[in-house]
Amino acid sequence: MTRPLNQPLGGNEMPRFGGPATMMRLPTQPSAAGLDACFVGVPLDIGTSNRSGTRLGPRAIRAESCLIRPCNLATRAVPFDSLQVADIGDVAVDTFNLIESVRLIERAYDAILGHGCVPLTLGGDHTITLPILRAMHRRLGPLGVIHVDAHADMNDQMFGEPIAHGTPFRRALEEGLIEPRRMAQIGLRASGYTSDQFDWARGLGVRVVQAEDCWYRSLAPLMEEVRAQLGAGPVYLSFDIDGLDPAFAPGTGTPEPGGLTSHQALEIIRGCRGLALVGADLVEVSPPYDASGNTALLAANLLFEMLCVLPGVKLA
Ligand code: MN
Ligand code: MN
User: Fold this and answer.
1) How far is the centre of ligand 1, averaged over its atoms, from the C-alpha of 192 (Å)?
2) Which domain does 111 fall in, by range?
3) For position 39, which CATH number holds?
4) 153 C-alpha to center of ligand 1: Å?
5) Which residues surround ligand 1, an ion (CB under 5 A)?
6) pTM
7) Is residue 14 in a domain?
8) Of the candidates 31, 34, 102, 112, the residue with the CA atom closest to the CA atom of residue 278
9) Reduced to 3 states, what is the DSSP secondary structure of residue 45?
10) Strand, coil or helix: 209
11) pLDDT tens, 135-164?
12) Which ligand does the CA of 123 lie closest to?
């Protein structure tokens, strides 16, 4: 028996500016039951260190996603012909308590994964990736990770706190959630407290590709190497929008000049096709700094591209 697959509401059925602002105008449902993949928001910004506002990220990304049509004209991916997808809304974080929020996020992802559903997350600041990885690790064991960011997010602490948006990958490596030799960081740059800040992870075997090594280049060859490095095991993709240059993505709290282009972002995500992706996030969109809405628009499109490279998505 073939099941009917959810489809985004088309612009010929309801104008694109009308109707509820769900991700890609998909149906919503309260849990991940029966889904192959879901979009889920985590409206958190109490882990940020500079300018906040990412609590408004999921809403802005959903609003800007209304223009995205169901077929990928570059890759010919037709995700809604292959997978059952819905928007399951937001995790109810405790906006007065970061540690409790981290616990609530882990519990929410436990439930999503319990349904065999691949979560595509609308952030939220980067703190959210730690509880997501904890939930993933519980079911899947140590993960491969592709981490796109201007920052390593490998701080031991921030203002004395072990949990913040600049520490998730340090904690995840310490907790054994990630296999360091199956991790690649792309787009790192700018200024730090010490000049060897990116080397702690390198010492563990993480591949660190600084932004300067991406300038003027296609990243398709890099992604071929990353696919070989990560192999056949489960892979999580964590994409901080500040990995992109502020020219493309100004709406974020800790912008750093000299970043990746939107073309390179597409090459990175499209280069994930063939990996055993078990989840992905797009974090750090801060609408108060996104005057044109372009940052949220780009984020929405990158989340669609993530959906297009999930295992099981057919090409037309
Ligand atoms: Mn980050
Ligand atoms: Mn960052």
Assistant:
1) 14
2) 35-308
3) 3.40.800.10
4) 6
5) 126, 149, 153, 240
6) 0.98
7) no
8) 112
9) coil
10) strand
11) 999 999 999 999 999 999 999 999 999 999
12) 1
